[in-house]
Write a structure and sequence with these properties.
Layout: H1 3-54, H2 58-72, E1 79-84, H3 99-106, E2 111-115, E3 118-127, E4 130-139, H4 141-176, H5 178-188, H6 207-255, H7 262-291, E5 301-304, H8 305-319, E6 325-328, E7 340-343, H9 345-362, E8 368-374, E9 378-384, H10 417-427, E10 431-437, E11 441-449
Parallel strand pairs: 6-8
Antiparallel strand pairs: 1-4, 2-3, 3-4, 5-7, 8-9, 9-11, 10-11
Length: about 450
Amino acid sequence: MKIQNKIALIFTALTAGIILSLSIFIYIFASESISASFFHRLEVRADIVGHAAIEENESLTSIYYDIKQRHLGDLPFEKHRVMKGQADQISKEKLPMPASFYNDLYKSAPARFFKNDTSYIGLNIKKEGKNVMVISSAVDLYGLAEMDNLKNLLVIGFLIAMVFVFTFGKLFSNEVFKPIRLIIRNVKGINALNLHQRLVIDNSNDDIEALSRTFNDMLDRLEITFEIQNNFVSNASHEFKTPLTVISGEAELGLSVPGLPENAAHSFRNIFKESEKLEHLATSMLSLAQTGFDGKKEQWEDVRIDELILSVKEAVDKIIPDNKVAVNFDNLPEDEQKLVVNGNKVLLKAAFTNVVLNSCKYSDNKTVGIVIRADQSYSVVEILDEGIGIPEREIGQIFVPFFRASNTEKYKGYGIGLPLANNIIRMHQGKIEVKSKVGEGTQFLTYLPFRYF
C-alpha cells in the first residue's frame, strides 16, 4: 500500500474515532435528557392521581382529575396503580421492577425504572396522617421516535463525514507527497547512461530539499565510481591481454624448438595451458565488470527469444558437439509479440549460453531441456537439467562472483558464468529463479519483460 493511501486511511480512522465518540456522547446525553423529562411529566401526573386518591372530599378529587385532564392530558399507555394501607400489598402486583425500586418507594423517595420502552415511577404520598403509594407507567412514543431520528441522523452524518474526510485526506496526502513522487519519477529516469543528471532542488528548507540533496550527493559518488570502473575496465582489457598473449606465444615458440628435452616441453605445455586459463579468467572477469555498468557501448534492439535460443543452441553445438540439449517450442504463445524483448543480443546470447553450458557440464552431458513460453508480462525461458543439483543452503549464493557449490570439486570452473548471466538479465529488467535438488537436477527460470507494442 502506498504511504499516501496509508496516511489517508489513518487520518480517516482517527477522525472516525473522534466523530463516533462525539456521536455516542450526544446520543447518551439526549437519551438521558429526554428520559428525565418524561419521568418528570409522569411524576407530576402520578402526584395528582395520588393526591386525588388521598382526598376524602369527592369534589376535591374531581378537581384534581379535572386539572390533570385539562392541563396535562394523558400520556401514551398511561396507567396508575394506587395502593392504600400496608406497603407489602405492592408485592402482590405483577410488575417487573427490581427490589431497589421498592426500597426507594418505602423510603418515600421517588422511584424510577425503565424496561421494554416503558417508564415506571413510584411515589409515596403522605398527607394529614394518610398514606398512599402510586405506581405509574407510560410509554414515551414521541421520545422514542425522537431518539430513533437522532440515531439515524448521527449514523447518516457519520457516513457522509467519513466520505468527505477520506476524500479530503486523500487530496491532502496526494498534495503532500507530490514532491516525493516527482523525486521518484526523476530518480527512475537516471541510469548508467545518464548519471550526469541531477534532481532539481527547491530552496524550501524542508525535508524534501534535504532528500533531494542527499540523492544528488549519492549520484555524485556513483558517477565518480562508475567513471573509475569504466577507466579500469577499458585499460585492464588491454593491459591484461597483451602480456598473456606474449606468454602463450612464447610458450608455443618454445614448444616448436626441435630437440627440446621432455621436461622443458612439459613446462612449456603447462605454461601455455595455464596462460590460456588465465586469459579466459581475465576475459570473464572483465565481462562481469562490464555488465555492472555498461550498456552504452552496445546497441539495443528488438530480440526474438525463440531465435535467440536457437543461436544459443548453435553456440553450444560448437563448444560441445555431442551435447544433448533439446529445445521445446510446444508452449510458444499464440501472440508472437510476447516473444520480443528489447535488449542487447550479444549479451543475452552470452547469458543463456553460460547457463546452458553450466547445465551440460554439471549434468555430465545428460539431457538438458529448454522450454520457451510467456505469461502476462514476461517471456519465460526454462532450462532444466538432470545434473548433480545444488545444495539447498547454497542456492542463494550461486550468483555471487567466484562462489562454487560444495559438490562441484571435480568440475573445472571459476564461479563467474552464473553471476555474469544474472547481471545481464538484471540489466534487461528481468530475473532468474533457481529450483534445485541434489542428485536430481536444477531448473533455471529466466524472466524477461516482453516489448509492448
